[in-house]
Design a protein that fits this description.
The complex is a heterodimer of chains A (264) and B (249). By secondary structure, chain A is mostly helical. Chain A has one domain. Chain A has ten helices and no strands. Chain A is elongated, with a radius of gyration of 20 Å. The two termini of chain A are 34 Å apart. With 249 residues, chain B is of the alpha/beta class. In chain B, the strands form two sheets. A six-stranded mixed sheet of chain B has the order 6-7-8-3-9-10, with helices on both faces. In chain B, strands 2-1-4-5 form a four-stranded antiparallel sheet. In chain B, a hairpin with a 2-residue loop joins strand 9 and strand 10. The model of chain B has no long low-confidence stretch (mean pLDDT 92). The chains are: A mainly alpha (264), B alpha/beta (249). Chains A and B meet through helix 1 and helix 4 of A and helix 1, helix 2 and helix 3 of B.
Chain lengths: 264, 249
């Protein structure tokens, strides 16, 4: 017969949450080239061309070889892309095929649904980052000065872009819309966010492009954790990232609870 | 007084387009009942089911599942319901085993419990030989079996079947009828929508007919089938449709 406690209030649905993670990991594992090989090859080319070939002719920055200066930016660029693509494609694909209804009819809270997606986002971003760090090690450019800060930047930035990906995945009505943020925001902003240069290298009239760009703070934060070179005022980047994270988490939770893009 | 398995009061659902899909619909399904929910295409059956199960947001009205509000206490309420939808809302690259196992996981079933239940359902619905194939590779009938197994994995107290035998062969239809009759005898409550009137007549004890978002007739099977023409005439009269005049009859 039916378990007597079935109508009792539920606590955290840990099994449901871990099932969401299992399911998304399975989906990610179906596309290893897209998920990992492509960003690793792209990062390898960046490291080789900009860090090794061109960088060999550029004097060091902040007392560090140019390759060491560039590597954190390349890691961050790929973490951002991995995080955003993971969550946006997971949500959009599930909406498009309608199997998102499996989670809607299940006893999962909105927070559990969001946490399930974010866990896989952080996993994918971390594996992507570890692969690039391993390449950097091969070129003798991988250093980590502060492991706590390093972990903070990997986890917080992947969570920020995982949440942004969820919002875009809920909003998109077509694959074209799904790709718009990558083409018009993520790629351009990460390129001009200080991956390859310091603010001082920019003409004075263009420096606002760095200071007004959130990627500038993420890249400098990670660079500070890895090689101790950070152009942003102490604490500002961490504070801005935490504020962004909280705002996006609130927005995502609100969208889930309203059923935006999920329920008819 | 016993708590009904499902109680809907004055349900109204208006889509963003302005289309009123369900309009002031009320019904009550007693625990252990086998309830037929009939109506023409677009009458509001699926929308009502979507509101019960959380796929759609009711515009107004209340839905209670075993006394639990389906909106306010949605997690506790959903734990008691299993839905077999009309459409195949399934990850096409996943295997039947994964699809059913994941659903069990969402409902909080532990690994051992899930494994036993998945094995049982694969066996029961003749899916064992296909359990590791991708869903997209299966025939229509096998796909229907998978979504049925998925709806039943957590052994729900209220089972909602939205046209579960649409497009399936006679063999599966009979397998399913036997299984549904069996679990209904065990105490599960079943809400069934179907366009096959003989199916409803054979399985259900109570019937509601919905048209243009409203219940236009409801009662026991005996009341519906007791008059000349049986359920078909009752259905046609309730929905205002013209009965076909077949030459020679």
């Amino acid at each position: 017969m039916f378990p007597a406690n079935r109508t009792a209030p539920m606590g955290v649905n840990w099994i449901g949450l871990s099932t969401m993670v299992r399911r998304e990991v399975t989906r990610m594992a179906r596309v290893p080239i897209q998920a990992f090989i492509a960003p690793w090859i792209s990062a390898l080319l960046f490291i080789f061309i900009f860090g090794f070939v061109v960088g060999g002719r550029i004097a060091g920055i902040g007392g560090r070889p140019y390759l060491e200066f560039v590597l954190p930016g390349i890691v961050m660029m790929n973490i951002v892309n991995a995080a955003f693509l993971q969550s946006s494609s997971a949500i959009y694909f599930a909406r498009f095929i309608k199997f998102i209804e499996e989670t809607l009819v299940a006893p999962l809270s909105y927070a559990e649904m969001i946490a399930g997606h974010l866990s896989v986002v952080v996993l994918r971003a971390t594996v992507t980052g570890i692969g690039i760090m391993a390449m950097g090690l091969f070129f003798g450019a991988t250093h980590v000065e502060s492991w706590p800060l390093f972990l903070f930047w990997i986890v917080s930035v992947s969570a920020v872009f995982g949440l942004a990906g969820i919002v875009v995945g809920l909003w998109s009505q077509s694959f074209e819309q799904l790709n718009m943020p990558v083409v018009f925001f993520l790629t351009p902003l990460s390129m001009v966010g200080g991956v390859f240069n310091t603010v001082d290298m920019l003409p004075e009239w263009l420096r606002w492009l760095a200071w007004g760009n959130p990627f500038f703070y993420f890249i400098n934060g990670l660079r500070g954790a890895m090689i101790g070179v950070d152009e942003t005022p102490a604490g500002l980047a961490v504070g801005l990232t935490l504020i962004l994270l909280a705002a996006l988490a609130l927005l995502t939770w609100r969208l889930f609870s309203k059923g935006y893009g999920l329920r008819e | 007084m016993p708590i009904p398995a499902l109680r809907i009061r004055n349900l109204r659902k208006v889509y963003r387009s302005g289309n009123v899909a369900v309009d002031d619909l009320s019904l009550s399904v007693e625990e252990g009942d086998f309830y037929g929910f009939l109506g023409p295409n677009g009458a509001g059956k699926s929308t009502t089911i979507h509101c019960i199960t959380g796929i759609a947001e009711p515009t107004s009205g209340t839905i209670e599942i075993f006394g639990l509000d389906a909106v306010k206490n949605y997690r506790e309420a959903r734990r008691l319901v299993g839905l077999c939808p009309q459409e195949f809302n399934v990850d096409p690259f996943a295997s039947p085993q994964q699809i059913v196992d994941w659903m069990g996981g969402y409902f909080g079933m532990g690994a051992a419990e899930r494994k036993a239940r998945v094995d049982y359902l694969m066996e029961r619905f003749d899916l064992t030989a296909h359990r590791r194939k991708q869903f997209r590779e299966l025939s229509g009938g096998l796909k229907r079996r998978v979504v049925l197994a998925r709806a039943l994995v957590h052994d729900p107290r209220l089972i909602i079947l939205d046209e579960p035998t649409a497009g399936v062969d006679v063999e599966l239809r009979r397998v399913l009828w036997r299984y549904l009759a069996e679990i209904n005898q065990d105490g599960r409550t079943i809400l069934l929508t179907s366009h096959y009137l003989e199916e409803v007549e054979r399985l259900c004890r109570d019937i509601a007919i919905v048209d243009k978002g409203r219940i236009v007739r409801q009662g026991s099977k005996a009341e519906m089938t007791g008059r000349p023409g049986g359920l078909e005439m009752a259905y046609l009269a309730a929905t205002g449709a013209e009965a076909d005049h077949v030459p020679g009859q």
